[in-house]
Amino acid sequence: MAEEFVDKRLDALVEGIVRLSSGDLSARMEVSPARDSMDAVISGVNLLAEELEVFYEELEQRVRDRTASLHAAQVELERMAMYDSLTGLPNRTLLRRRIDDETLPAAVRSQPAALILLDLDAFKAVNDSLGHSAGDQVLIEVGRRLESTVRETDTVARLGGDEFAILLPQTTDEIACDIAERILHALRPAMIVAETSIHILASIGVRCGEAGQSGEDMMRDADTAMYVAKNLGRSNVQVFHPAMLHATHERFTILEELRQAIPAGQLRVYYQPLVSLRNSTIIGAEALVRWEHPDRGLLYPDNFIGIAEESGLVVDIGGWMIDAVAAQLGNWGDVLDGRDFAVRINLSTAESRAPGLADLIDRALAEHAVPTDRFIVEITETSLMTDPEASSANLLELRELGVGVEIDDFGTGYSSISYLRKLPAQAVKMDSSLIEDIATDPRQRKFIAAVLQLIEAAGLISIAEGVETADQSRILTELGCCYGQGYFFGRPMLAADMAAVITGGLGATAGGGDPEADRAIGNLRA
User: What are the pLDDT tens digits along the chain (526 aa)?
Assistant: First the structure.
């Protein structure tokens, strides 16, 4: 009997399908010479396996490509998180990491790191006058110049705005100070931006490292030294000293107490008379703020106005002053009846360009029934040049309202008569520094005579502040100055004393005990 034939193709087909289903896409089955229906099924399964293998290879490639893209994106995100997008320099986050690496106990070496912080001086004027695109070009160039002054191991970082930092690993105090001075020197050459020559300087603070010091303390101390540099006139280098922290703490304490001074009713308004030099009559007063501190006593503006300007609190103080002066003018209604008298109030730079200034003053005067011509604002040349368009717009609105405008501290800023002619101002107040030597220096007398002629030629009224002697008053009168203000005529005083001086019923109070000023008061009783 012949041996029975066994067809093993079905078993091979089943085994191939099992291998494919388990993920082995390389599995293939041989086709027999019979070429029958079973072989057709085997051929179909083989074709399907080939298509699946190609599909999965393409899928795996797409996964690999996507993974690579995600990794590249992650690297880019990390770069963006650690580097400044404008200058390409390390940013604050990366700088802090590197500072921590240098100050960690395990990383403390024989010589600690040093940190330099710098802030560009008057950079806002570049943005305001030339636009932010020009400002960006300046920042890029500053970054380039900083990198040219340091060593390869140093880190130049942009912290934001116009503030930069340089980390100097393992650096002596002498090297840190030398690099800081080199930075000042590198910034001095002019930059040509938007076809304009720009000079950019910086205030620089240096923190020479100490063993065991934290990165946070280094940043704080360098920042403290940098602000000391700014307060000392800018464009200079200051090395941190522990005494600076006390001064910073003191300023912070004063700021926090000043925030409470307005609601606590601690601010006072003092009035200093202005006098007509032609007929010796009082024609007005300047309102000056004082702070009746509960522990420190009476504080003058030099003790707190600078802090108020830095913090923006000066706007709140200015608003309080406007309302307080308007209220006092309202209370003086009977005293001022029939008199040519106006009160001057100083505007800070922030107030002079703040929107709604005219409306604020208008509401205050209307609330206390005060004629607008009894209120005059004083604004400095420097404030005008900080944002000329905004300041000029506000001053025009005030003039349309009927409020007077005067230029204060003339002679300490730009001193441009041609510019002053374009402003809606009525008067120019010469700074006391101009007339200080007028009685002893013939050249200064000639100079003041020329200034007064220019003021008159511009169609403006002249006022001299800081008049302290009879000789100064006499010479100014001879030279044709219109009005005077100073201790010779009267010291700043409270409203009740000012009312007495206006009506001529006060003797020595206005002079504050100064015999020469007291003698002058006799001529002021109008």
Answer: 444 545 778 888 888 788 888 778 788 887 888 778 887 888 888 888 888 888 888 888 888 888 887 777 776 677 667 899 899 999 999 999 998 888 765 455 567 899 999 999 878 778 766 788 888 999 999 999 999 999 999 999 999 889 999 999 988 889 999 999 999 999 989 888 877 888 888 999 999 888 778 888 899 999 999 988 887 777 899 999 988 888 778 888 999 999 999 999 999 999 999 999 998 899 999 999 999 999 999 999 988 988 888 788 999 999 999 999 999 999 999 999 889 999 999 998 888 888 889 999 999 999 999 999 999 999 887 677 656 666 778 889 999 999 999 988 887 655 555 666 677 889 999 999 899 999 999 999 999 999 999 899 888 999 999 999 999 999 999 999 999 999 999 999 999 999 999 988 334 344 444 444 444 444 443 3
Do 434 and 392 fall within a single domain? yes
Residue 2 lies in a domain: no
Host domain of residue 102: 92-240
- ∠ CA 249-104-221, rounded to 5°: 20
- Strand 404-410 and strand 375-380: the pairing is parallel
Q: Is residue 83 part of a domain?
A: no
On whether both 328 and 473 belong to a single domain, the answer is: yes
CB count in 10 Å sphere of residue 399: 17
Pair (288, 203) in one structural domain:
no
Same domain, residue pair 257 and 387: yes
Sign (positive or negative) of CA dihedral 154, 160, 162, 163:
negative
What span, in angstroms and rounded, lies between the C-alpha atoms of 195 and 140? Answer: 16
CATH classification at residue 228? 3.30.70.270
Distance CA 383, CA 399 (A): 18
The DSSP bridge pattern shows strands 155-160 and 375-380 to be unpaired
Q: Are residues 230 and 258 in the same domain?
A: no
Residue 191, strand partner residues: 198
- Does residue 80 lie within any of the structural domains? no
The answer to whether residues 464 and 444 touch, using CB atoms and an 8 Å cutoff, is: no
For residues 54 and 147, membership in a common domain is answered with no
* Torsion sign over Cα 55, 56, 59, 61: negative
